[in-house]
Amino acid sequence: MKVIRDAKELPRASDIAFVPTMGALHAGHQSLIRRARQLTENVLVSAYINPLQFENKSDLANYPKTPLNDEELASEAGATYLWFPNENDLYPTGISEISAGEIGQKFEGASRTGHFNGVVTVVNALFSAVQPRWALFGEKDLQQLFLIKKMSEMLHPHISIVACETVRDVDGLALSSRNVRLNPSDREAAAVISRALKSAQGESELSTKLQSLREILSSEKRFALDYAEIVDGETFEIASETTIDQRAIVAGWINGVRLIDTMSMNSSRVNVLVSP
Ligand code: PAF
Fold first, then answer.
1. Number of domains, the chain
2. In terms of domains, do 97 and 218 share one?
């Protein structure tokens, strides 16, 4: 695996599969890299902590930074290139901010003002620099995935966005770089999220799905709920009984750590499980 620190060294192949990350790689990122490797031998991973998407400066300061471990995990999963961009690489002529639109201000965007504008701005800059054929993103950040797809359809229509299943730990917790900030008792409490999602998935009506989701989440006093909704995966509007692609989305905090998760309400599809 080649480590790239200067954008001039980026490969110019027509079949690059791109995995954008903020570093602090874990098994979830590795599963994206492995999926990318099934598409091509030219797998490029970027690791860049994007200040534009952090509305909370202490969250930015506390974001884990593990560059050596990132090299090890990216290489182990089969990445061909690992790029550590800097601001000049991404915005050679200055930042041109992109709006994530109305949907970017709902749910996650309502609690994190400007977050999705920052996400689509950096992903647009990354796409322009890398010019991949495919770009892979985890479904865990479902609203992010939705908004990146929209941005990409408009500005980079030749790139195929590949959505990859959420990877979960054995206790059901969706893998996230933020999980390292949870102590053992926080982790125990955090398991309520996937438990609530699975229980909702087992219900047959939209109203009972939502009821079950919210009841179980509120039974865990250590979980401070931000939102728990069921949206239409096609539009990201609140779902109705007739919505075909119903997706539950949940966010909240445990001990100051923000956790988000999602699950399709249509199937009993089991996510990939990994050992700790
Ligand atoms: O999901 C992430 O890690 C980030 O939001 C992304 C897509 C790399 C943009 O900074």
1. 2
2. no
- 198 with 116, same domain? no
**What backbone torsions phi and psi does residue 14 show, to the nearest 5 degrees?**
-90, 0
Which of 135, 164, 193 delimits the end of a domain?
164
With bands split at pLDDT 50, 70 and 90, how would you rate the model's confidence at 241? very high
Q: Which domain holds residue 30?
A: 2-164
What the block records as the tokens of 56 is: 């909370």
User: Between helices 115-130 and 142-155, what is the axis angle to 10°?
Assistant: 50
Q: Is the CB of 4 under 6 A from ligand 1?
A: no
Q: What distance in Å separates the CA atoms of residue 56 and residue 49, rounded to the nearest whole number?
A: 13
**Which mutation among 29, 117, 123, 137 tests ligand 1's pocket best, with the greatest number of atoms within 8 A of CB?**
123
Task: Using the 3D structure, point to which of 133, 164, 195 is the last residue of a domain.
Answer: 164
29 is catalytic: yes
Residue 21 sits in the same domain as residue 146: yes
Q: According to the model, what pLDDT value does residue 59 have?
A: 87
Instruction: Indicate whether residue 233 lines ligand 1 (CB < 6 A).
Output: no
Q: Name residues whose C-beta falls within 8 Å of residue 11's C-beta, 6 or more positions apart in sequence.
A: 42, 44, 80, 81
Whichever domain contains 225, its CATH number is 3.30.1300.10
What distance lies between CA 121 and its chain's CA centroid?
Answer: 15
Query: 29, 115, 156, 158: which one is catalytic?
Result: 29
User: pLDDT, tens digit, for every residue of 5-32?
Assistant: 999 999 999 999 999 999 999 999 999 9
Tens of pLDDT, residue by residue over 172-208, are: 999 999 999 999 999 999 999 999 999 999 999 999 9
**Strand spans (E) along 48-191:** 81-83, 134-138, 160-164, 167-169
One domain for residues 200 and 240: yes
